[in-house]
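User: Predict the complex.
Assistant: Input components as received:
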Amino acid sequence: MSIEYNPKYMKHFYDPVWESFENGFWEGIKQRKLLFQKCAACATFSHPPRVRCAKCKGDRWEWVESSGRGRVYSWTVVRQEVHPAFRVPFEVILVEMDKEPGVRLVSNIIDCTAEELSFGLPVEVCFQEVTKGWALPMFRKVVA
Amino acid sequence: MSLKNKACIVGIGSTEFTRNAGRSEIHLAVDAVTAACVDAGLEIDQIDGMSSYGTAGIYAAELAPDIDVARSLGIPNLRYFGQTPWGGGACCGVVAQAAMAVSSGVANYVACYRSLKPASGTVRYGRPTAIPAEYRYSYYMPYGFASPTMWVAMLAKRWMHETGATREQLGHVALVCRENALRNPRAMFYGRPLTMEEYLHSPMSSEPFTLHDTCLENDGAVALIVTTPERARDLKQKPAFVTGVGFGTSRDSHSMTSFYRESIGLPECTEAAREVFGMAQLGPKDIDVAQFYDAFTATVPMQLETYGFCKYGEGGAFCDGGDRIRLGGELPINTSGGMLAEAYIHGMNMIAEGVRQVRGTSTSQVKGAENVLVTGGLGVPTSALVLTSGH
């Protein structure tokens, strides 16, 4: 089931903030693009972004647009409310991206019940407007 | 040069554990440190060092800072003060730092403490209301992914999938901790038994967890006094030697949101295990009783694996039926009830229980216990201790 935001509490919405070395990712989000950090020297992907590549210690990066395809690596179904801004139940998924080795992304799934979720379920990104300022990358099932 | 057996814990003190302590974090810390001094046979003014927790990374500033606790105790001077960050991950590190301070002569008697009042105060560790706008949370909060229970549930769900561990096996962790609490009059759950039936029918909070899979929320403080073995000879109690200490992170450590490693396991615990057992020159087979950080049931079998008591994938089966982890089993765990059933004091109560096992004074005493493993919180930078009778 899609995450449902309670408009009464949207003043509590957590506006993303980021460090300078994460600009590429969040500037991409603003343009509704999913960009991941890729080392210009050794082609290793990194998410969340870092200052230096964990593998070769290089600090030159490319921001590569993702196909947006991935698979559900893990998930939780939240059934007890912790903040009234988010109506329960809702699902949080951890997606392992298909084309970017080692990259996982936390998000919500918008077209799936808790019962339909499974390990390895193929999903694809879709941007969902959450506030006037923010459309966030969320996921939906890949229809075969 | 090694820190092995260069320091010992000579005093333990605690406030009551309660839903409403009716006094501040500073007040609770002062009461716990005072009790620890009485237990050790020390004058308060002999305390010349304090080792405490830093911020947990996600919550408000420390509410019982060392300088305020020292002032309220009337301590004239702190020759050493230091904090170890990352919430419950710190707990054994707080003692490790105290051991480093006394063994190097920077201070003589260091008080370690943790004081929390999430049950009646403003900072609740299970709730997101106090989480500040820090960059690392931008990947989680907008998705409603906003509490430690959810974060650890994400890890536990994958671990259960990979290993085949079951809800019943997690239930036995909760039941064994509860059994231990029923023998411990200090415990929040003293007199309140739990059955597997109740466990399995409790509503999910964040799958795969229910209320019974998550730690208590209570007010209270626990303190320990650390000094050198030479000074310990003049004090009241049988000392618990700090025989091994270990810290650990991993290449992709985050604070509770370590979702990006190759394996979903707990590599920081593997690192801390190598350090703590290496210094102690002991291994899992030498450990008589363990106090595993149990903010969540699933992290107990996950630590059985990472601390080397069994292989990856065998932790769930280790807990099956509870016989191997209960009193009388091959590795009794969390003998005070742990944080699932005694109290949630960010692990400081579990170190105190480790000391009781070495002294022989636990309410769930393991006969002849000499070597005790205590671990810190995981999925965060972590720490561990081996406490022994110094044989």
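The longest strand of chain A covers residues 69-78.
Let me know if you want any component modeled separately.
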